[in-house]
Amino acid sequence: MAGNLTFDQLKSAVAAGEIDTVLACAVDMQGRLIGKRFLAKYFVESAYDETHGCNYLLANDIDMEPVPGYKAASWSKGYGDFVMKPDLNTIRNVPWLEKTALLLCDLKDRHTHEDLAHSPRGILRKQVKRLQDRGYLAYFASELEFYLFSETYDSARAKHWQNLDTASPYIGDYLIGITTKEEGVMRRLRNDMEAAGIPIENSKGEWGPGQEEINVRYAEVLEMADRHVILKNGAKEIAASEGKAISFMSKYNYGLAGNSSHIHNSLWSADGKTPLFYEKGAEWTLSKLGQQWSAGQLKYAQEFTWFLAPYINSYKRFQSGTFAPTKIMWSEDNRTAGFRLCGEGTKGIRMECRIGGADLNPYLAFAALIAAGLAGIDEKLELQKPFVGDAYQAASLPEIPKTLRDATETLASSKMLREALGEEVVEHYVHTARWEQFEYDRRITDWELHRGFERY
């Protein structure tokens, strides 16, 4: 994987006093960076080999509360440690923090030193290995959308997340003039990420006031997931340093566009030089392999939706007429579709999955898409004809699950995912999903109070 510093360069920078802090990070179930801040000299002396963390970090909810019922970690097992094994190929400097470097760690069993089956990065590594065994390399790219607010996180909290001031007062989709007003954060984000070894191709205004889209250059799939999580973490830190706030919620406001994370994906030869989806004489210039891969993703989309939409809020985004999909089909170039073929007629031909929200965990989402694509190849599935028209109005098309509850049960019943990811993995994340539903079901919402306090 590609950081922008070697370990030897890190040691030299530490010796020269250019770096005094090393962030040793792993990724939790929610796709957030967790870990430790090391005084740099101690990291390069010993912690570069391994450090440890409490295994409850892969058995808690988004509030960091331990969740009962997991097999992997519990009070009865004492919540022991797992190993955080630094991946020294992921070291990069962090321009937005003073004298700081960051790297990612793989989470391993303390006794066997094997990847934890339910670790997000480990789950994706397993699918990458399946690709490598067949001579494939997967290139992925995720587009991230978010809202930028002229608020701090403290002021937003004080307002109870209501009536927040967005960075721009009206929709600025593609408008240069309005997005110039947002450049204080966006220019830093583009340049600092580039300096951290995360190449940003562009940013633009999106279809909501103060809404942004940022596009990271495609990469090998594990590297892309690494870029994704560092970008999200860094974006919030950069915004906070500028007195602003960012939200990656799928749907922060009922009346405004949601935040997506469209995922572009294709297969290449093992050396990354030959596109395996492009075939000049094929229908749609999409090779048989590409058609089977895409057909697999279509067939199993309902089963892996939870990996693209893991929260109650995620399903509020799937509304007609909002550029978020509601139906499962593919199109050659149609933004009402759940899947869209991009780059037709070029070596860059790829399938774009438009289902995911910006709240997804990229390791889990990418792993699920690979598993479904490989299932399509193994089953030699035939790709249906592309849809033409307004998919929102096409009643006969299969639907994306409408609620977290629906997506959880389709995940629980998926034989394909149990075989590809493992029983242990599916059971772990089904439990995660059911806990999220349970927590929501027992809470009283502002909407309920507004409707019922006086009128019931």
Short summary:
The protein has helices at 7-15, 40-47, 120-133, 153-158, 176-180, 183-195, 221-241, 288-299, 301-308, 362-378, 404-412, 415-421, 423-441, 446-452; strands at 21-27, 33-39, 51-54, 81-86, 92-93, 100-108, 136-149, 200-205, 211-216, 219-220, 245-247, 263-269, 330-331, 339-342, 350-353. With 456 residues, the chain is α+β, with helices and mostly antiparallel strands. α9 (301-308) runs antiparallel to α10, α9 (301-308) crosses α11 and α11 (404-412) packs antiparallel against α13.
Q: What is the number of E strands? A: 15
Q: Give me the secondary-structure category.
A: alpha+beta
Q: What amount of the residues lies in strands?
A: 15-25%
Number of helix segments? Answer: 14
Low-confidence stretches: none
Question: What letter string, H or E per element, gives the SSE order?
Answer: HEEHEEEEHEHHHEEEHEEHHEEEHHHHH
pLDDT averaged over residues: 95
Fraction of residues in H or I helices: 25-40%
The end-to-end distance, rounded to whole angstroms, is 58 Å
In angstroms, what is the radius of gyration? Answer: 22 Å
Oligomer: single chain
Summarize the main sheet: 9 strands, mixed
3D shape: globular
Protein name: Glutamine synthetase
Keywords: Ligase
Organism: Aminobacter carboxidus
InterPro entries: Gln_synt_N_sf (IPR036651), Gln_synth/guanido_kin_cat_dom (IPR014746), Gln_synth_cat_dom (IPR008146)
Give an overview of the whole structure.
This is Glutamine synthetase. Residues 120-456 form the GS catalytic domain. Keywords: Ligase. It comes from Aminobacter carboxidus. Belongs to the glutamine synthetase family. The chain is 34% helix and 18% strand. By secondary structure, the protein is of the alpha+beta class. The model has no long low-confidence stretch (mean pLDDT 95). The chain is globular, with a radius of gyration of 22 Å. α9 (301-308) crosses α11 and α10 packs across α12 (415-421). The longest helix has 21 residues, at 221-241. Strands 7, 8, 9, 10, 11, 12, 13, 14 and 15 form a nine-stranded mixed sheet that branches. Strands 1, 2, 3, 4, 5 and 6 form a six-stranded mixed sheet that branches. It has helices at 7-15, 40-47, 120-133, 153-158, 176-180, 183-195, 221-241, 288-299, 301-308, 362-378, 404-412, 415-421, 423-441, 446-452, and strands at 21-27, 33-39, 51-54, 81-86, 92-93, 100-108, 136-149, 200-205, 211-216, 219-220, 245-247, 263-269, 330-331, 339-342, 350-353. The protein starts with 6 loop residues before the first helix and ends with a helix. β5 (92-93) and β6 (100-108) form a beta hairpin. The chain is built from 14 helices and 15 strands.
